[in-house]
Specification:
The structure holds three protein chains of three kinds.
Chain A (H helix, E strand, L loop, with lengths): L1 H13 L2 H9 L1 E2 L7 H20 L8 E3 L11 E3 H11 L4 H28 L8 H23 L4 H15 L5 H9 L8 H31 L3 E2 L8 E6 H26 L5 H4 L15 H12 L5 E3 L2 E3 L3 H26 L7 E2 L6 H21 L1 H8 L3 H32 L10 E6 L5 E7 L14
Parallel strand pairs in A: 4-8
Antiparallel strand pairs in A: 1-5, 2-3, 6-7, 9-10
Helix pairs in contact in A: 3-5, 3-10, 4-5, 5-6, 5-10, 6-9, 6-13, 7-8, 12-14, 14-16
Chain B lengths: L1 H30 L10 H13 L1 H4 L17 H9 L21 H14 L16 H11 L1 H4 L6 E4 L2 E3 L7 H10 L14 H16 L13 H23 L4
Antiparallel strand pairs in B: 1-2
Chain C lengths: L1 H26 L4 H26 L6 E4 L9 H17 L2 H23 L20 E2 L15 E7 L10 E5 L9 H4 L6 E5 L11 E3 L4 E3 L6 E3 L5 E4 L11 E3 L5 E3 L18
Antiparallel strand pairs in C: 2-3, 3-4, 4-5, 6-7, 7-8, 8-9, 10-11
Helix pairs in contact in C: 1-2
């Protein structure tokens, strides 16, 4: 009753009834892999909610204060005001630590969900025309997420994140011509600089969330406007979309996923410790502890820095430092190729048609091979970023492990690409999936002693491939 | 026949006599082996027996070292006690880094060997008296972070330091062993003398390390205190893993 | 269906209890693990119940098929839209001079608007080439105590600063005492490393972390960040890892009473390389 009255009341003022009716009935395909983006969305929502709470307690100041809280090993020590505020939040504010940990775990799950979502979109070719703009926006969201994460975990001004800031400063410093100027502009001077915490805060709670909100809005609007891709199945065509209607089923399922995502992150936030800054101490520039790793979504950059050879270049009396290539050029190249992939693929394949069908990875063996190579590259780099920890865990010597990782960085992608290509080609060229149930045939012995077929039943292959795209 | 048997018996007797002479001569010569100038105490004598049985093959009878083991001249009782009480020594394979194991000798035997080595190789840092209760916990934390955490980790859980070496976790250590390691600098570890880290500094560091060992953290499961590597693993495998399970169960398969 | 509705009911019921539990925990003072566990039950209870309801209980609503409303624009339409947009621009660009002046004004203002960014930081100047070290300044440790010849044992090391800049990020240095006669420096460098003491910058020349690992047995300084390793006996040349530049040395002298003093600033700019760093 109330709902009806409200909707009618709103519509009387906005004249949106046809808009409302049409969009409440709009269908969305509900394949399970299409829900990965939603996990990222809801993790982001939780980041905003918990982050708002945290921002009421955080102080972006490097002024020294004396710690007077309940954590004994720091009592009487000189720490920065920012560090002190996060310690207070963690030890003296009720629900402070669980909020802070939920925020950090949400960031880790957010980035993981984005990566899983990118992998799904890539391997199913859902970035093809007309969805290239969505893909570009998505890469922009990925970059923004990395920026948000890096700026966020640097805010507590602990020793571990301070080392990360130092490395970022050094990478900026190595840029030819303008590097020193850019580093001094961004940090306010020589490292660590008096202004960096405040600037990171502005980035983290204002600029980057604004960018993410805008990009996210555009991303969702485009999905709504262009309608979602779907896998082939009997009865589905390029011009129709089959799924469940937005209201009530899809919306309630999605809201349910939101709460489940919140719940899983709350589980992590309460039961698993993350970023225990009290162990690391307040940042000082003259002390770096080990192990020294950033969060895993930056860990691949760390791996590049660890594995890269010590090449320093001298040009015309100037120096290009060792960190420029692994810290800026290679990641820049990776993101550029990633961003331009839909256009590169369209140019190479000559395919400029609209596609609303999502492909199975096996329908595009070359693309899947590149995708597998990319994933292998990323995984090796993340392992390399934590090489000292992983080596100790595996019981191997870290310097030999580095050698293995360097080989793996080349061989891994090549091998996984080749293997993926062969598997995809093999699966694609078979009439039915090798794991599908075999056709059942009923035989009868006839009087002459031979066998004859009386009944045969070919089960549907489920996801029948009617017109596989040759790619 | 009997003539041969007779000469055989004579040869046998001769051999036996020579053997007896050699054994006696050997015993006499053995008793002339180099020994400390003064008489050994009972404890040092026991230590001598144990040392010569378990240590001298690599470290030499006079603690002068050999191809397989370094000289112990001037290493000090702290080093000997550290190596023995943590089970690092006796080391089966000299090519590997000594790591903590079950000690071979009980405290009494260890003390005896320490006393003997001190007698034949005097000098070096003595076993420090480390009293964690007298240490200052915040000072210990500060010293630990500045001087120890680069190798041993901010959480004292250890890390690879390259060259095939591991800076071990400090959780199994006693306060005395912590003090000994700081003074002695076992393996690739540098040493820190009393003018650099005083006895009170040792107390404080030991107090902090033991505090780390005995106090869990508020945040929940510590994940080995290794930081982002374990956290990333948990986020992806447990966090994203659970959510993948949820979407797989509630999404359609076509 | 009945079992699903039971599952959903239990989910929601558990969520209610957990939410009530959260009240209690909060009033009682809070405890992170209990808070997290109860939040998990409360949130996932609602979430799980909703998902079960949507997927198992709304059986009347199945898959529907709709036409995709948007496709390639009909022929002529996209040209018309492009024409409408371009037409407006052409209307303006017909007045050539005005248009160019407008572009000039926008460009100039745009460039001028960049200038406040300059206020964010100061010019690097020569600050990357200098630290706080000057000739005659005494070496002190992180607590401000004077470092003398007797402070360190052989195979020991400590962090040192100029006496008036304790804790300074760019002046941080590491004093190492090596076994007698083991330094292999050229003569002019050896003069600044008396009595088997040598001081190097503590800032790794790769990416700037503090070099806190001293592997005394092999006389190597190692960086915890990316494992750059420097040979202390040999002028801190990099021997492993991604660093390419040796650590700058701080030449020191030792007074008769054992006090250590710097003889000047480091032998090279400290820290990671930058564009204006001249090649060695």
């Amino acid at each position: 009753m109330i709902v009806r009255r409200w909707v009618e009341g709103v519509d009387e003022r906005l004249d949106g009834s046809s808009f409302i009716s049409r969009n409440l009935r709009k269908v969305f395909p509900d394949h399970w892999s299409f829900m990965l983006g939603e996990i990222a969305l809801y993790s982001f929502l939780l980041l905003v909610l918990t982050g708002t709470f945290l921002s009421f307690f955080y102080l972006a100041s490097d002024q020294p204060v004396t710690y007077a809280g309940p954590y004994q090993p720091l009592q009487g020590q000189t720490v920065s005001a920012a560090y002190d505020s996060v310690m207070r939040l963690s030890f003296e504010v009720r629900a402070g630590l669980v909020m802070r940990q939920m925020h950090h775990w949400a960031a880790l799950v957010f980035m993981g969900a984005i990566i899983a979502h990118i992998i799904r979109v890539f391997f199913t070719g859902a970035f093809r025309k007309p969805r290239e703009i969505s893909w570009l926006i998505g890469i922009g969201l990925f970059l923004s997420g990395i920026g948000a994460g890096f700026s966020g975990y640097s805010l507590p001004d602990d020793a571990l994140s301070g080392a990360g800031l130092r490395i970022a400063y050094s990478i900026i410093l190595s840029i030819p011509f303008v590097g020193t100027w850019l580093a001094y502009l961004f940090f306010g001077g020589e490292f660590p600089g008096p202004d960096i915490l405040n600037r990171l805060l502005v980035l983290h709670i204002f600029i980057i969330p604004l960018v993410i909100f805008t990009l996210l809005g555009a991303h969702l609007a485009l999905v709504w406007h262009q309608t979602h891709t779907q896998f082939r199945a009997p009865g589905r065509t390029e011009d129709t979309v089959t799924g469940i209607p937005v209201w009530p089923k899809f919306a309630l399922k999605s809201i349910g996923l939101a709460f489940t995502t919140f719940g899983v992150i709350a589980f992590l936030g309460g039961l698993f410790q993350v970023n225990p800054i009290w162990l690391y101490g307040s940042f000082v520039p003259y002390s770096t502890a080990s192990p020294s790793q950033p969060d895993y979504y930056v860990g691949w950059l760390e791996g590049l820095l660890r594995l890269w050879p010590n090449w320093e270049f001298h040009v015309f009396g100037h120096t290009i430092g060792e960190v420029l290539l692994p810290g800026l050029v290679v990641p820049g190249l990776v993101f550029t190729i990633l961003a331009l992939w839909p256009f590169l693929e369209a140019r190479v394949s000559g395919d400029h048609e609209w596609h609303h069908f999502a492909q199975h990875p096996r329908e595009a063996p070359v693309r899947s091979a590149f995708g597998a190579a990319g994933v292998a590259f990323f995984v090796v780099l993340v392992l390399a970023g934590g090489n000292d920890v992983v080596a100790k865990f595996l019981g191997v010597e870290v310097d030999s492990f580095n050698t293995i990782l360097r080989w793996a960085l080349f061989l891994g992608p090549v091998l996984s690409g080749l293997v993926t290509y062969w598997i995809c080609r093999d699966l694609r060229d078979r009439p039915r999936h090798p794991l599908a149930a075999p056709p059942r045939v009923t035989l009868r012995r006839n009087a002459a002693g031979g066998f004859e077929e009386i009944e045969s039943e070919t089960p549907t292959a489920g996801r029948a491939l009617e017109e596989p795209d040759r790619r | 026949m009997s003539a041969v048997a007779g000469s055989e018996a004579a040869v046998r007797r001769r051999i036996l006599r020579c053997g007896l002479l050699l054994a006696v001569a050997g015993q006499i010569l053995w008793s002339f082996r180099p020994a400390p100038g003064r008489a050994l105490t009972a404890q040092e004598a026991e230590g001598r027996m144990l040392y010569e049985a378990s240590c001298s093959t690599c470290h030499g009878l006079q603690a002068e070292g050999s191809g397989s083991g370094p000289s112990l001249q001037g290493v000090g009782p702290a080093a000997v006690d550290f190596m023995l009480s943590t089970g690092r020594m006796p080391l089966a394979d000299p090519a590997t880094q000594p790591i903590r194991q079950q000690p071979r000798f009980d405290p009494e035997q260890t003390a005896a060997i320490v006393a003997y080595v001190a007698a034949i190789a005097p000098g070096g840092p003595g076993i420090p008296t480390v009293d964690p209760e007298a240490g200052d916990l915040p000072r210990g934390a500060q010293l630990f972070l500045n001087s120890c955490s680069a190798c041993h980790g901010a959480g004292a859980i250890g890390d690879s330091v390259g060259g095939g070496q591991i800076a071990p976790s400090l959780y199994p250590s006693s306060a005395t062993q912590i003090g000994e390691a700081v003074r002695v600098g076992p393996g690739v570890m540098p040493k820190f003398g009393p003018a650099d880290l005083s006895a009170q500094d040792l107390n404080s560091i030991a107090r902090y390390v033991l505090w780390l060992r005995d106090h869990g953290d508020r945040g929940g499961l510590q994940l080995g205190r290794v930081g982002a590597v374990a956290e990333g693993f948990v986020a992806v495998v447990i966090g994203l893993g659970l959510l993948l399970l949820v979407v797989r169960l509630t999404g359609s398969k076509t | 269906m009945r079992r699903s509705s039971l599952v959903a009911a239990i989910s929601f019921g558990a969520a209610i209890l957990a939410a009530l539990g959260l009240f209690v925990v909060y009033i009682a003072g809070g405890q992170p693990q209990v808070e997290g566990g109860l939040l998990f039950v409360a949130l996932a209870g609602i979430g799980g119940g909703l998902m079960v309801w949507a997927t198992r209980l709304m059986t009347g609503i199945g898959h529907l098929t709709q036409a995709r409303r948007h496709g390639l624009p009909p022929p002529g339409e996209k040209e018309a839209a492009a024409e409408a947009m371009a037409g407006g621009v052409e209307e303006m660009s017909r007045r050539r001079l005005l248009f160019r002046l407008l572009l000039g004004a926008a460009g100039a203002l745009g460039l001028a608007a960049i200038f406040p960014i300059r206020s964010l930081g100061r010019a690097p100047g020569a600050s990357l080439f200098r630290t706080e070290w000057r000739a005659g300044l005494r070496l002190v440790d992180v607590d401000g105590n004077l470092v003398t010849r007797d402070t360190l044992e052989v195979d020991s090391f400590t962090t040192v600063f100029p006496e008036d800049a304790v804790g300074s990020g760019d002046s941080q240095a590491v004093l190492i005492r090596v076994p007698a006669g083991s330094l292999e420096l050229p003569a002019d460098r050896l003069a600044g490393a008396p009595d088997d003491y040598v001081v190097y910058s503590k800032i790794c020349t790769h990416a700037g972390c503090a070099l806190g690992l001293y592997l005394a047995q092999v006389h190597q300084l190692r960086c915890p960040c990316h494992q750059s390793t420097f040979d202390v006996l040999n002028g801190a040349q990099p021997v492993y890892g991604p660093a390419a530049r040796a650590l700058p040395q701080l030449p020191i002298e030792i007074d008769p009473d054992g006090t250590m003093r710097a003889l000047g600033d480091f032998t090279a700019p400290v820290g990671p390389s930058f564009w204006d760093l001249p090649p060695p």
